[in-house]
Amino acid sequence: MGGGRPALEISQRPKCTAFGHGRRPISERDGPGPSPPLRRIASSHRMEPLSIPVRPLDGRFVRLEPYASELKDAVRAALDQDAEAWSLFAVSGQGDAFDAWWSTAMEQMERGTRLAYAVRDKASGHVIGTTSFLDIRRLHRSVEIGATFFVPEARSGAANPEAKLLMLEHAFAGGAVRVELITDLRNLRSQAAIAKLGAVREGVLRHERITWTGHVRDSVLYSILPAEWPQVRVGLERRLAAYS
């Protein structure tokens, strides 16, 4: 998390399935909403399922644009940098691996378990990275922010802090009771950035996944709860004020 790190929180939990047929395009839907059975269960517990509408998120410095076919080439160009950083990702999105990365993201979006964004720098108009809501658990109102990558020149500026601010606002406005962030235990820079964000370190998930390099990864788990969000928000806004 935070600016100035090589590879950010990185997670690709769900496995992909084929696209559904006969459904409205993502852009025409209200977002990954609950299915009728989930609505009935949620109603019985007197709570609304998590709602994360699929729409752009606009800030002063960046605009987060949900993945769509017209963004594919721009995202490819942004991700095709810094091979060393990709060694810390669970799944590679660089080079020959990009098409599988993109297909997986689109399939997970169609299923409603992920919402992937291209991050566009508003000053230059260029796509400078990507980030996602992952493992969207509507009934339990919980979501992960991850699969985040920024081009090297964007890592020490306002882009990542503002992207996190926009996504956290979106999640908590939709009723999230928990937002998770997960990173590789080897990625000390990412851990420091997540701590700076104000997330609570919950512990280490030992041998939690095997990455694309074959590394058996220990993952560090962080979370932000609604009661902690106001303080996290103030901290992010204070950091962004320095770039105004």
Largest sheet: 8 strands, mixed
User: What is the fold named in CATH at topology level?
Assistant: Aminopeptidase
Q: What string, H for helix and E for strand, traces the elements in order?
A: HEEHHHEEEHEHEEH
| Number of DSSP strand runs | 8
**How many discrete domains?**
1
The overall pLDDT, averaged over residues, is 86
Tell me the overall shape: globular
Percent strand equals 25-35%
pLDDT < 50 stretches: 1-30
Radius of gyration: 17 Å
Q: Assign the CATH superfamily.
A: Gcn5-related N-acetyltransferase (GNAT)
Query: What is the CATH class name?
Result: Alpha Beta
Structural class per helix/strand content? alpha+beta
Question: Which CATH architecture would you pick?
Answer: 3-Layer(aba) Sandwich
Order of strands across the biggest sheet?
Answer: 1-2-3-4-5-6-8-7
Regarding quaternary structure, what we see is: single chain
Topology record:
Layout: H1 36-44, E1 57-58, E2 62-66, H2 72-79, H3 83-86, H4 98-111, E3 115-121, E4 127-137, E5 142-150, H5 159-173, E6 178-184, H6 188-197, E7 200-210, E8 216-224, H7 229-241
Q: Overview of this structure, please?
A:
The chain contains seven helices and eight strands. With 244 residues, it is of the alpha+beta class. It has one domain: Aminopeptidase. It has an eight-stranded mixed β-sheet, sandwiched between helices. The longest helix has 15 residues, at 159-173. Residues 1-30 have low confidence and may be disordered.
List keywords for this structure.
244 residues; alpha+beta; Aminopeptidase; 8-stranded mixed β-sheet; 7 helices; 8 strands; globular
